[in-house]
Amino acid sequence: MLELEQKILRDGEILPGYILKVGKFLNQQVDTDLLKKMVGETERLFGGESITKVLTVEASGIAFATAVAMRLGVPMVFAKKHRSANVSGEQYTAPVYSYTHKTSYEIAVTSSYINENDRVLITDDFLANGNALKGLISIVKQAGACLVGCCIEIEKGFQGGGDELRAAGVRVESLAIIDEMTDSALKFRE
Amino acid sequence: MLELEQKILRDGEILPGYILKVGKFLNQQVDTDLLKKMVGETERLFGGESITKVLTVEASGIAFATAVAMRLGVPMVFAKKHRSANVSGEQYTAPVYSYTHKTSYEIAVTSSYINENDRVLITDDFLANGNALKGLISIVKQAGACLVGCCIEIEKGFQGGGDELRAAGVRVESLAIIDEMTDSALKFRE
Lengths: 190, 190
Fold this sequence. Notes:
The structure is a homodimer.
Chain A: H1 2-11, E1 13-15, E2 19-21, E3 29-30, H2 32-46, E4 53-57, H3 62-72, E5 76-79, E6 91-98, E7 103-110, E8 119-127, H4 131-142, E9 146-156, H5 161-167, E10 172-181, E11 186-188
Parallel strand pairs in A: 4-5, 4-8, 8-9, 9-10
Antiparallel strand pairs in A: 1-2, 6-7, 10-11
């Protein structure tokens, strides 16, 4: 999506360790005009798929997932990153290793929020090694629901997680895919 | 807001320690039809205030804040609960004590995301003792921005935080205010 790529080039910041900081418009601060356009593109890609739930993981995935779910007219569900005192009852859980934070954590969704009648679209802000997505996909499978696909705002294609999932048959659509990244330059996939 | 009150009575769950669990429709799972109506009410209350930013705190505040910011056509900013490896540069910070989790944490916003020209609406899902709101208000003040007011989805009126802030001159609007809560019943403010 050209407008997102242009925004990344203009306002993104490359930090050591292949970290792309997009807090100015996509995470900690969200440009809602751009968000509306990304939601429009997501609707174009998945609007015909009879989706019943949008699933993401806290915290930076919630803005995009909420906006997509509002557009599709379905509930948004987010996985929590730690078991919380406020989450009672049965949960689906999956372990996730974060390369950014060099630590493992568990994601959890109250099991009554997804069931075998759901057609689930997973969304997230970033896809790199794909570990968070694999955790969310595991939760969809545990629930016996149908995984329609995954829609990601920014994929770091050079880290391989997206293509690995595509090779495994998962529909993964990313609004921008970065195939090369140096300290000062980015190259997007055609 | 009658529809929210009815939803709380129908789908909310009271847990020990005056915890009202609304994960089924307001936090971990978000009913986006209800969310749209809450956004409409927020626009009615604050739409004429020339707001330039909506500020909240991760994670469960992000859905409501995103939806309000999209409607008002302004950016959404969320405070992070811990300093993150991905947040670089100057930050405004404030300490917050959580009664729910019995622990203190720090909230932080990259300082370039709010400035002295901003008219800020703070939103959150819950208001109880008001500690999270006070932290967010502190960040707005540190930035030299104008605090227009606070819009909360559910206020636990009996815990006093909202009325304390109102007495201090802050405009606090809550879409539902619970004034009494027992193990089995709720009473809303007129």
